[in-house]
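Morning. Coffee machine broken again, so started the prediction first thing and wrote up yesterday's gels while waiting. Chain of 195 residues, entered below exactly as on the submission form.
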Amino acid sequence: MPRLDFWYDLASTYSYPAAMRIDAAAEAAGVVVRWRPFLVGAIFKAHGWPDAPFNVLPTKGRYMWRDLQRICDALGLPFRRPEPFPQQSLTAMRAALVAHDGGWGEDFARRVYRAQFAEGRNIGERDTITAILDELGQDGDAVLAHAEAPENKSRLRSVTDEAEKLGIFGAPSFVTESGELFWGNDRLDQALAAA
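Came back before lunch.
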């Protein structure tokens, strides 16, 4: 089966609806999805952006919040604007690498998205991530100890470097096996068709 890489950051607004619908859409299209966590904020900084584009451009930010509400309403997803925005996702992203290694990364990612964008929890707080890990039947403290090990920190930097080399500039992004890049939740169906 063809494969599509789904590049996501747990602080990314439009990655929330994409994460909640990608598996069913991919199954219907006959495509295997590989979830790829990376730090979109590091890529923003590499482009000289001091903050998320939605904060740098307030008009764009106001539009994004309304647009995200419409998307979530259409998909039947609960939505609550997170405060602060963007939230610090570094610990959660490191844990996502460990979760994917263990075969439960997709469940972890979806749970973190729900915590932030549906329940108003701060994913930048270690206690929030520990609680989510525990809810998933994992040993939260043990997972975070592994996530914060030097080799895992280095791996997240390497994966983010890989994303930048692929030309990724935002999240969510989708990359086909041939290297074609699609950016944004609204490009998921096109990406699946191309895969």
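The chain has a mean pLDDT of 95. Going to sketch it on the whiteboard this afternoon.
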